Amino acid sequence: MRVWAMFRLLPLAGLLLLAQFTASGQSQPGTIDVQGTAEVKVVPDEVFVVFGVETSDPSLATAKSDNDKRIKKLLSIAQEMKIDPKYVQTDFISIEPWEHELRDANRTVRTEYRVRKNVAVTLKEVPNFEELLSRAPEGGVNFVHGIQFRTTELRKHRDRAREMAIQAAEEKAVLLAGRLGRQIGPAQRIAEYGGGWYSSYNWWGQGYGSYANAMSQVSSQAGQSSYGEGTIALGQITVTASVSVSFALR
Fold this sequence. Notes:
alpha+beta, Translation Initiation Factor IF3, 2 domains, five-stranded antiparallel sheet, 35% strand
């Protein structure tokens, strides 16, 4: 009876072994992972500038009064240029005592009061940027802390860049799969990474940069050498998008 049972089980074991071999011999569909990037060039339609006014005097009242006069003059210039008041804001105020050494024989140390104020201006009329930057010293501005050329339609351009990045990823997957005799199927996973916008004309000072240095920086980035002759070249903003896509293979 034991021998008979053994012979009855052998065919079943053979069938199981054959089934396992057949399953392992079948090729799996698999996936292909690719990345796509895209850039969209955009002409800026607004400029964001942060001006700084700093005054100092042994008398706090004098230092503050001088600073207030300069700020009022700057605001007056903005009004003359018909810049909407809602786009002109004071975003920083600082008053602090500081000691500095006088250049005399006794190397006298004197305490003064330093008053700092920043005024942020969003300029909607981009062609007027040169005039604003040139006239700012009339208002007593002695620092330019930052300049940004921006677009108000960033979402629109980001979406366009995303579409182009997806298309680039799909075309890459088709090329790679086709080279190996395969075709791509539906997308299994989509992820966005990185992306954003930048402009080679943007400048943001570290700490307190001087007005002259800011003008020189923007001028050199624009590829020009003079502000007085209307020679600022604004260039374009680059909006980017990057995606990672996993496609099924067929």
